[in-house]
């Protein structure tokens, strides 16, 4: 057999081995080298991390100061506050959009969603994939009747601007006519002494009661006292 034929045969054998290895890996899934199922914690050791970036934390503080009395939630998946028909595959909807998270969600105290705020990088610096994901989220929220506001991470609005943006002022109602002021009674009334009047009482002989301020803590943390034994402990002595 010529040398080029041997080289072609070796290449075919190598390709077959690669295909077999890839199929074994895909069929193994979450199984270990011994064929057993991998432990969730041992195979993927978890570590705590921050939920919000620096810009998102600043935006969260702006919303808290701008909307007192409202509930501000962070990193909420769309599937938590959107319902969709189930005549088609719900898992397919989750794969497309349901697992995406809104950066900040503004709710009333009954947890009803009023608006969504997403903090993004300046225009032109985000990836094409991130832009498509944001546009898809905007379409879905618009269809659900939930306004979405996109804030730039390096140019966040002020507290006043955020308040006007999320809670537009309503038209002022016409003022009701003022009621006529009553005519002042200028008649002079003479006071007569009553049996409870003590015009001859000496107030210097009254007993004074000192009003003391309460302790600053209802748990009396400022006092340094040792542990007090219980009644049962005394009987044991």
> Average pLDDT, to the nearest integer?
75
Low-confidence stretches: 211-228
Number of strands: 4
Structural class: alpha+beta
- Element order: H for helix, E for strand: HHHEHEEHEHH
CATH architecture of the domain at 54-166: 3-Layer(aba) Sandwich
Can you offer a commentary on this structure?
The chain has 237 residues and is of the alpha+beta class. The protein has a domain of 113 residues: Trna Endonuclease, Chain: A, domain 1 (3-Layer(aba) Sandwich). Helix content is 35%, strand content 11%. It is built from seven helices and four strands; from the N terminus they run αααβαββαβαα. A four-stranded mixed beta sheet has the order 1-2-3-4. α3 packs across α6. The protein is elongated and about 125 Å long. The relative contact order is 0.08.
Give descriptors for this structure.
237 residues; alpha+beta; 7 helices; 4 strands
Concise synopsis of the structure shown:
35% of the residues lie in helices and 11% in strands. With 237 residues, the chain is α+β, with helices and mostly antiparallel strands.
SSE blueprint:
Elements: H1 3-28, H2 40-43, H3 54-66, E1 71-77, H4 90-98, E2 101-107, E3 113-120, H5 128-143, E4 148-152, H6 159-166, H7 231-236
Parallel strand pairs: 3-4
Antiparallel strand pairs: 1-2, 2-3
């Amino acid at each position: 057999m010529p040398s080029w034929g041997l080289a072609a045969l070796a290449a075919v054998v190598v390709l077959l081995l690669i295909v077999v290895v890839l199929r074994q890996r895909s069929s193994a899934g979450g199984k270990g080298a011994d064929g057993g199922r991998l432990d969730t914690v041992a195979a993927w050791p978890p570590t705590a991390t921050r939920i919000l970036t620096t810009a998102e934390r600043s935006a969260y503080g702006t919303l808290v100061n701008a909307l007192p009395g409202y509930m501000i939630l962070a990193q909420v998946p769309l599937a938590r506050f959107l319902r969709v028909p189930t005549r088609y595959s719900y898992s397919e909807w989750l794969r497309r959009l349901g697992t995406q998270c809104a950066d900040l969600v503004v709710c009333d105290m009954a947890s009803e969603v009023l608006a969504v705020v997403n903090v993004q990088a300046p225009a032109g610096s985000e990836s094409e994939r991130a832009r498509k994901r944001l546009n898809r989220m905007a379409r879905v929220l618009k269809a659900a009747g939930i306004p979405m506001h996109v804030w730039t991470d390096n140019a966040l609005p002020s507290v006043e601007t955020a308040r006007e943006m999320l809670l537009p002022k309503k038209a002022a109602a016409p003022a009701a006519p003022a009621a006529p002021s009553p005519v002042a009674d200028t008649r002079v009334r003479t006071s007569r002494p009553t049996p409870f009047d003590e015009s001859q009482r000496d107030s210097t002989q009254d007993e004074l009661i000192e009003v003391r301020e309460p302790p600053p803590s209802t748990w009396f943390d400022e006092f340094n006292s040792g542990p007090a034994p219980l009644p049962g402990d005394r009987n044991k002595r």
